[in-house]
Automatic annotation (TrEMBL):
<protein>
    <submittedName>
        <fullName>Unannotated protein</fullName>
    </submittedName>
</protein>
<dbReference type="GO" id="GO:0008444">
    <property type="term" value="F:CDP-diacylglycerol-glycerol-3-phosphate 3-phosphatidyltransferase activity"/>
</dbReference>
<dbReference type="GO" id="GO:0016020">
    <property type="term" value="C:membrane"/>
</dbReference>
<dbReference type="GO" id="GO:0046474">
    <property type="term" value="P:glycerophospholipid biosynthetic process"/>
</dbReference>
<dbReference type="Pfam" id="PF01066">
    <property type="entry name" value="CDP-OH_P_transf"/>
</dbReference>
<keyword id="KW-1208">Phospholipid metabolism</keyword>
<keyword id="KW-0594">Phospholipid biosynthesis</keyword>
<dbReference type="InterPro" id="IPR050324">
    <property type="entry name" value="CDP-alcohol_PTase-I"/>
</dbReference>
<feature type="transmembrane region" description="Helical">
    <location>
        <begin position="162"/>
        <end position="183"/>
    </location>
</feature>
<dbReference type="InterPro" id="IPR004570">
    <property type="entry name" value="Phosphatidylglycerol_P_synth"/>
</dbReference>
<dbReference type="InterPro" id="IPR043130">
    <property type="entry name" value="CDP-OH_PTrfase_TM_dom"/>
</dbReference>
<dbReference type="InterPro" id="IPR000462">
    <property type="entry name" value="CDP-OH_P_trans"/>
</dbReference>
<keyword id="KW-0443">Lipid metabolism</keyword>
<feature type="transmembrane region" description="Helical">
    <location>
        <begin position="99"/>
        <end position="119"/>
    </location>
</feature>
<keyword id="KW-1133">Transmembrane helix</keyword>
<dbReference type="InterPro" id="IPR048254">
    <property type="entry name" value="CDP_ALCOHOL_P_TRANSF_CS"/>
</dbReference>
<keyword id="KW-0812">Transmembrane</keyword>
Length: 196
């Protein structure tokens, strides 16, 4: 893994990408409340679309402005994960998702948390994000609003339902596959530590 200074990581946490990530985090409870409270699905979808755009924008600006930071590395995946958890919980409460979907995704996150706790024994605070893991999260971020949109009547609802479940199953599969890759990566790192 590259040294943060080699990557041009910013010394300050006051960066535009971090501000965008913080805004995304503030949108999570609003998004959740809109689905389970007044059931304003349209506005909830708008928040999710804006969040997805700012997710892309903060990464683009971090590269363009060379504004990398350790805080940004933590905030970006945290916001993604919280949106997925909020959407899962809200859609389950609304009876739009079965319990096995919620269990499959939360169990994988629990196993990853245990892996990170294990890594702390070796003074490793994190592992590089794998492309498959990022792709799995993006599939889930596409899937969950489409499942919500699938409750609408007519052709739009029917198409959204089919694509939502396709993205969801593919996302769950990739999510678990990425987890296996992370475990393999960690045990490879452990062998290197023992060898040195």
């Amino acid at each position: 893994m590259a040294n943060p200074t080699q990557l041009g990581v910013a010394n300050s946490n006051w960066t535009i990408p971090n501000a965008l990530s913080a805004l995304r985090l503030l949108g999570v409870p609003v998004f959740f409340w809109l689905i389970v409270g007044p059931e304003n699905d349209g506005l909830a979808l708008v928040i999710l679309i804006v969040s997805s755009f700012t997710d892309w924008l903060d990464g683009f600006l971090a590269r363009k402005l060379n504004q990398f930071s350790r805080l940004g590395e933590l905030l970006d995946p945290l916001a993604d994960r919280l949106y997925v958890v909020a959407a899962l919980a809200a859609l389950y409460i609304r009876d739009l998702l079965p319990i096995w979907v919620v269990v499959a995704l939360i169990l994988r996150d629990v196993l990853m948390s245990l892996l990170l706790i294990y890594l702390k024994r070796f003074r490793i605070t994190g592992i590089p994000v794998h492309f498959v893991g990022k792709a799995a999260t993006m599939n889930l971020l596409y899937a969950l609003p489409l499942v919500l949109l699938g409750t609408y009547s007519g052709l739009v609802g029917q198409v959204a339902h089919v694509f939502g479940w396709a993205f969801l199953i593919w996302g769950i599969t990739m999510y678990w596959y990425a987890g296996l890759l992370y475990y393999r990566q960690v045990f490879g790192m452990r062998r290197e530590l023992h060898a040195s």
